[in-house]
Specification:
about 50 residues
Length: about 50
């Protein structure tokens, strides 16, 4: 008996993960505070208008 097809497949995968920070924690905290303030500006303006 003869083999008509023979296939040998090799798959190699490398994964590199780095934990380098692009921003400091203080920068991240400031960005979050600015985002919250920006999203709440309309509510603050409405409350000021009703007083």
């Amino acid at each position: 008996m003869y083999n008509e097809f023979y296939v040998n497949v090799t798959f190699v995968h490398y994964y590199n993960y780095s934990l380098e920070q692009s921003k400091s924690f203080q920068d991240i905290r400031g960005d979050i505070q600015e985002e919250i303030k920006r999203r709440m500006d309309w509510l603050t303006a409405f409350i000021d208008w009703t007083n």
